[in-house]
Specification:
Blueprint (H helix, E strand, L loop, with lengths): L1 E5 L6 H9 L3 E5 L6 E3 L2 E9 L2 H9 L1 H16 L4 E7 L28 H15 L2 E5 L4 H10 L5
Parallel strand pairs: 1-2, 4-5, 5-6
Antiparallel strand pairs: 1-3, 3-4
Helix pairs in contact: 1-5, 2-3
């Protein structure tokens, strides 16, 4: 298996280090949708998010929400069957727990996002139902391993 990584994606050293330590071949290309996929198949596309603050911005800002919907549609156009948002989190394990999220604060005590956790959870649940996307959570250090596991699950290739 060879993994494609989007060139527009910031280099995620924790992910590429995992690939390199485990002899996982990867190349950087401009991807039509998402951040990671197999070279030989568009069936699983993974879009990584550094944290819940990032996904909150993507789903709750009108322009970003529109862009995310367009990206999901593009993925479907090329044969994607599983569009996965892989979100780094040390405290949240699944969408049903997002309402328990403690929104991080800046030094001056203002939150990084004004989106309330229960609202974000509802939006994520709606996205799952309406667009059949998946939200998977894992620790940042485990993201490379999780990407490989998810992409290896595309056994039809």
């Amino acid at each position: 298996m060879i993994i494609e990584s989007d060139t527009r994606q910031q280099k995620e050293k924790h992910i590429t280090d995992y690939f390199e330590r485990n002899d996982i071949k990867y190349i950087r290309n401009k991807l039509y949708a998402g951040d990671y996929k197999r070279v030989d198949s568009p069936k699983i596309i993974i879009d990584t998010k550094k944290d819940l603050v990032e996904i909150a911005g993507n789903l709750c800002r009108t322009s970003e929400h529109r862009r995310i919907k367009e990206e999901i549609a593009k993925a479907c156009d090329i044969g994607c069957e599983r569009f996965i948002f892989l979100i780094a989190s040390n405290t949240i394990g699944e969408v049903s727990e997002v309402h328990n999220w403690n929104v991080p604060k800046r030094k001056d005590e203002t939150p990084y996002t004004k989106v309330r956790p229960e609202v974000l959870q509802k939006i994520m649940e709606t996205m799952q139902e309406k667009y059949e996307v998946e939200f998977i959570f894992c620790k940042k250090i485990s993201m490379g391993k999780k990407i490989v596991e998810l992409l290896e699950g595309d056994a039809t290739c």
